[in-house]
Amino acid sequence: MHTKAFVFPKESDNSFVTLTAQLTKPLKAFTVCLHVYTDLTRDYSLFSYATRQQHNEILLFKGKTGVYSVSVGGADVFFKPPESSPAPMHFCVTWESTSGITELWVDGKPMVRRSMKRGYSLGTEASIVLGQEQDAFAGGFDKNQSLVGDIGDVYMWDYVLSPEEINTVYAGGTFSPNVLDWRALKYKTYGEVFVKRQLWP
């Protein structure tokens, strides 16, 4: 999938991509990075990781007011990056169990840190979905929360990347992602989803 992106060209409740992760033990930390290009002004999901016990085990979600919510284990924290005109945007989300510290990086810039779910462990039997928000394990989709646009460069690690590493990922580098690796992605598309060249450098 190198230099490619998933394209979701229209609103739906049945177009999505499932990703297969390499997970063997509960997660005590993670970093998720991805590129998104959309001009939606309503709510939409960027990354949805559900388990049978918790459908918002990990969720990155954009609200219509320009606020981004990050969910871990069903808890939420909120970030409000500066508004920008529609352009490809790069996001990295990090969380660690030991402190509960949660970070959101937008285009290589960190938002003020938050904290949630200290001491929590993320489940491993996960349904990971792009393009829709899961309100049930691998389902419960609402077209009013679907992504219309492009998503790519999805990477996930089972630890927190350093600020220097996040900036390297933003610049196009990688650090052996050990949960999800865009360059060797295991995925399945459903509905109207297309694989096209990326529109960002």
Written account of the structure:
The structure is a single chain. The protein is 4% helix and 39% strand. By secondary structure, the protein is mostly beta strands. Strands 1, 3, 8, 9, 10, 11, 13 and 15 form an 8-stranded antiparallel β-sheet that branches. The model has no long low-confidence stretch (mean pLDDT 95).
List keywords for this structure.
mainly beta, 201 residues, seven-stranded antiparallel sheet, eight-stranded antiparallel sheet, 39% strand, 1 helix
Q: What's the SSE blueprint?
A:
Elements: E1 4-8, E2 16-19, E3 29-37, E4 44-50, E5 58-62, E6 68-72, E7 75-79, E8 89-96, E9 101-106, E10 109-110, E11 114-115, E12 127-130, E13 149-157, H1 163-170, E14 187-190, E15 194-197
Antiparallel strand pairs: 1-13, 1-15, 2-12, 2-14, 3-8, 3-13, 4-5, 4-12, 5-6, 6-7, 8-9, 9-10, 9-11
**Uncertain regions spanning at least 5 consecutive residues:** none
Order of helical and strand elements: EEEEEEEEEEEEEHEE
Gyration radius (Cα, Å) is: 15 Å
Assembly of the depicted chains: single chain
Instruction: Count every helix, treating DSSP H or I runs of 4 or more residues as helices.
Output: 1
Give a quick summary of the entry.
This protein has 201 residues and is mainly β.
